[in-house]
Amino acid sequence: MRWITLCGSTRRHSFNARLLQAAAAAAPEGVAIVHAPALDTLPHFSEDLEPDAWQAGPVAALADAVRGADGLLVATPEYNQSIPGVLKNALDWLSRHPGRSLLEGQRAALMGATVGPWGTRVAQAHLRHVLGVAGVAVSPRPLLVAAAARHWLPGGGHASGAWDTELQAGLGAWLVSLAAAWQPPADGRGDQRM
User: Fold this and answer.
1) Which of 72, 118, 145, 167 is deepest in the core (most CB within 10 A)?
2) Where do the DSSP E strands lie in 92-139?
3) Residue range 6-45, pLDDT digits in tens
4) Class for domain 2-181, per CATH?
5) Rg for the chain (alpha carbons), in Å?
6) What is the domain partition of the chain in residue ranges?
7) How many CB atoms are located within 10 Å of the residue 133 CB?
8) What whole-number distance in Å separates Cα of residue 117 and Cα of residue 164?
9) What is the pTM of this model?
10) Mean pLDDT across the stretch 51-75?
């Protein structure tokens, strides 16, 4: 299986980018976790840009990364109790691909890290709504939330480094559970989207 990551944070040393890097390092056997291009390279969505955007450039590169993926791992910070504009912009582009949305019929799992005590629960609820409207089957498995993220990283999270072993183990178990849920049925009659 090939899963594509989408990171809603553009910050250098972002907790969410590092969470997705940790997920890629902990990928279960048979799963390749590949990072999509950085979302801050995308132009703001505009119907005026659509004809050219799909031919070449960052929008076309994002589409190529997502096309044919077996699932999306989406990590979002929480800004003003919602998702960042850069993530919503990317989802708007992906939902508008000519001929067929690249999100329609896709499946996704959500995660998020924040320095606050409540994690990214509200942002993930908003993200679940946006993805559902776009036709994405969002995994009903428990959300992966890393609240108080600085405490999970060596040195208070200011430099690159591995996550705390407890969080890393929890992330690995979550990915194994997700891989089992996303396996195609044994009878070969197509895949299950949850």
Assistant:
1) 72
2) 107-113, 137-138
3) 999 998 888 888 889 888 988 999 999 999 999 999 999 9
4) alpha beta
5) 16
6) 2-181
7) 11
8) 17
9) 0.86
10) 94
